[in-house]
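Appendix B, record 7
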Amino acid sequence: MSKAAELAALIANVNKGSSLANKNFIINGAMNVAQRGTSFSYAHDGTTSAFTLDRFKFIVSNTDEFDGTLTQATDVPSGEGFVNSLKWTTGTAESAVASNEVMYIEHMVEAQNVAGLRYGTADAKPVTLSFWVKSSITGTFNSGIYQSDGSRIMTKTYTISSANTWEYKTLTFAGDTGGTINDDNGEGLRPIWNIFVGSDYTSSDSTSWGSYSSATWGYGHAQNAHATTAGATFLLTGVQLEVGEKATEFEHEPFETTLRKCQRYYIRRNAAGVYHYFGSGHVEAVNAGRIYTSFPVEMNHIPVLETSGTASDYACYNSDVDACTSVPNLTNASTFETGIQLANSSNAFTAGRGCNLLANNTTDAFLAFESEL
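Structure tokens (predicted):
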């Protein structure tokens, strides 16, 4: 093979993504990791902001009647190697989209992972966002990138041409010579996918980098029927954000690799059965015990603890199984490990003994450590 042919083959290989490991700034773009669960229902409470499948957050604001569900679906583009997607299904439709109503999906990228884009310099690098989308409703939709440190935004529009058909979209964003991405563990870039957008969010042009205002958020978005159509669906998978002006083939990676990346921001340990063992430690007093646990990866920052919210779901075993009388809480936490404090107001613990934290005759108990951006 000639040198020219070898070079052409190499370029083709790179463009397919086969030799570019860790090129994707998005974590869990194939929607495979779902530590929080695989189905999420949202009532018409006006405003919701919640993480769903790992690293992807759902936002809806100021609605009146609107509700629906987000699920981890198995509906995927054929022949592309995906097994999961994120699927929205509208339940109760909104009677009309008011000017201040909005719904979108977002993904926050840690700043130090994208600081090399050199925003704020003459050498700022472009990025390309690519994804597969399937919608029961066709039309013009807005997607964009919000830059947290500089409070700047740039948006683009794309067209869904065929209902209920997977379509591949690529959007390229110029490097922002006037922006800022700090080299730290805060939020760097935030890709967004608007699904419906009121007029308060569409009045200012954001097709080039500029200062963020609410009016720039969904510029150019024209299709709001997901809000007003019961049963409307919107599916997303194969999300990739990479350096350059060309989208390359999606970077599939082992599940365990994606899971460990997700665990920098969220770790959940569900009870695998009745009296599931969460960890061990010691009893400090008749009303207090403490267990210890290490995290599988260093978390983004010192986490907060999430539980079932029901104290009796947890128990301390130090000779007998004694129910906790308050929900466990963190003590002496770091980004690597933490203590978990147990309490029993009836003084049922035996001081000085070792102890285990158990799921108390339930499978509803869980411990989750949240360190999201």
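Remarks on this record: The helical segments are 3-15, 111-114, 225-228, 255-262. The chain is about 10% helix and 40% strand.
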